[in-house]
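Friendly challenge for the regulars: who can give me the structure tokens for this chain first? No prize, just bragging rights.
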Amino acid sequence: MKKNSIVLLLVALMTATMATAAASAAIPVEITKVEVNGFDLASMSGYEDVNRGEEIEVEVYLHALGDIDNGEIEVSIDGYRYKAYEHELVTDYQRFKMNNDSNRKFTFQLEVPVKMDKDSFDLRVQITGRTGDVLEELFPIGVSGLDEEDAIVIKEFSVSPSTVVEAGRPLSFKVKVKNYGDDDLDDISVKVAIPALGIADDEYLDELNADETETFEELLLRIPQCVDPGTYTVEATVMFDEYQVTKQTMTITVLEGDVCGGTADEDDKKPTSKTVVTVPESQEVVMGTTGGVYPVMISNLGSTAKTYTLTASGIDAWGTVRFDPAAVVVVQPESVKTVYMYVAAKEDAQAGAQVFKLTVESEEESKQVVLTANVGEGDTASYDSLRRGLEIGLIILVVILIILGLIIGFNKIRGDRGDYDEESQTYY
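First reply, four minutes later:
Bragging rights claimed.
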């Protein structure tokens, strides 16, 4: 039994050895040298170092041990987590033919992804033949960070609430940056600007560590009221390490606004609207509290009572809203009614300026107001914010009532000269 077992074991070993030799011989070629950017990997001590974002040239030298009619060489960087999505960056291949005992050089172009980890990876050279047999060799390479002048990359540049805005409205921009270099960088500044309109806003950061990401979210631009409608370019500029700069751009579309600060004759000031909506542009909204309050004053300058419906959009993602006494109110002719809009931030809301839209709508008219909630962290009650909002609302209400009294008195003086059609300042 022992003798038979030994014989069987020897037969199995010989069979495996012959199969391996046959598989190796199935592709009659050998790799004689592999170079990356001119450096012979086989002769390097350790491995070749490449940088994130670098385009590398890989040269593979082959010697044919027989005729090859349908060969294929594939060169790839293994271990990249997003290889399935950026396969064209880290992989290149060629088909080839070679005669027996000939030599040939093949050149491939790869790009080291910016998002690749700073670590060691394998450069895989794989050769296949007609039958699918494979000959491959692995060569270690090291990946380092981006060069210092290109280290900071803008990962995201976005605008809220929309890329389409009316003149006189505000826009909120977000810029997310990451340091893909090897070193910590100092004095980071981010500026968002519309050069054609001469407006800009900026933020600063003392330091951005290597492989760290930072988001700038309090970049606000208000479009001037009387600009020409059209498409404008918005630039995000990041300055770092004293002299280094990176930029990204987007376009916005500006529509004509309803309010303009220019002068006009009295006849040109007659309004087409008989509704005035007055509301504070922004309020403080502290997370974990009842939030901030916006007193919304609706002035009905018409001759009949009107029913108004109030809605708020763009809040659901970060907060809640309610109206007091109700979201639907009736305003008598030549009268003012105040509706208090309470805006509260969710516990997981992101701190910073949040832009949303208030719509006040009747059967004849629809007014839209772009507002800002300055969401902040804290556990104090919103009594102070509520009190400030009510004080502001009371002052504005008194002013509106005085203006309304003057308008009504003026209408009586005019007598039979026609219905009131004098313009009031409408706030959006």
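Residues 150-255 form a domain with the Immunoglobulin-like fold (CATH 2.60.40.10). Residues 383-414 form the longest helix (32 residues). Your move, everyone else.
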